[in-house]
Amino acid sequence: MGKNYKESAKLIDKSALYTPKETMDLVVKTSKAKFDETIELAISLGVDPRHADQQVRGAVVLPYGTGKSVKVLVFAKGDKAKEAELAGADFVGTDELVDKIQKENWFGFDIVVATPDMMGVVGKLGRVLGPKGLMPNPKSGTVTFDVTKAINEIKAGKVEYRVDKTSIIHVAIGKKSFGAEKLIANFHALMEAVVKAKPSAAKGQYLKSVSVSSTMGPGIKVNQAKVLD
């Protein structure tokens, strides 16, 4: 542990559960790196992701975005390809993009969008895109004929959340430079979406723990009973 981390840790009571406002004030205060640290949210859920009916997955547009410039790849053809280009997609194509990814191991993009008629082509990349969480999915709005809407939302700060095999959701909700107010707004938007996405098959306590941390800083526990306050 570095000097900055130790100094930051002194500001946090590990046994305490903080309100969202207290948490964001603290995470900004404890972000001491010389670069603009990313603020990350970790949500432990009372679900068993091994069961299909307890999967938690979706997407939400954060009011203030993530602070990251996102490169969007769109699989589309004809008029939809032209529409994607006009909407600001960084890469647009069909089979040639599949070849580039497969043969050159190219991943110069952050999110993949596809029109439904292209999923047969995109399916060839399932083993490559799947493990990286890049496979287009209707639930996250990345399989759609409305490519303009999809691209606009992504560029505006849309983030995808998905519970992993350890029942935890990890999502970036902004940068230190946002300040506490904007981070709180992004935090609330994401938590509202996750709470609404609770599977009916999930029993017992749904939000087991919620914590926030900066890239180089210590974790700060949020009072899960007050995440929407």
From TrEMBL:
What InterPro entries does UniProt report for this protein, alphabetically? Answer: Ribosom_uL1_bac-type, Ribosomal_uL1, Ribosomal_uL1-like, Ribosomal_uL1/biogenesis, Ribosomal_uL1_3-a/b-sand, Ribosomal_uL1_CS
Q: Name one GO cellular component term.
A: large ribosomal subunit
Keywords attached to this entry? Repressor, Ribonucleoprotein, Ribosomal protein, RNA-binding, rRNA-binding, Translation regulation, tRNA-binding
Give the PROSITE patterns listed for this entry: RIBOSOMAL_L1
Instruction: State the organism's lineage.
Output: Bacteria, Bacillati, Bacillota, Clostridia, Eubacteriales
Q: Tell me, in a sentence or two, what this protein's role is.
A: Protein L1 is also a translational repressor protein, it controls the translation of the L11 operon by binding to its mRNA.
Organism field = Clostridium estertheticum
Give one GO biological process term: translation
State the similarity comment: Belongs to the universal ribosomal protein uL1 family.
Tell me what this protein is called.
Large ribosomal subunit protein uL1
PANTHER family recorded: 54S RIBOSOMAL PROTEIN L1, MITOCHONDRIAL, LARGE RIBOSOMAL SUBUNIT PROTEIN UL1M
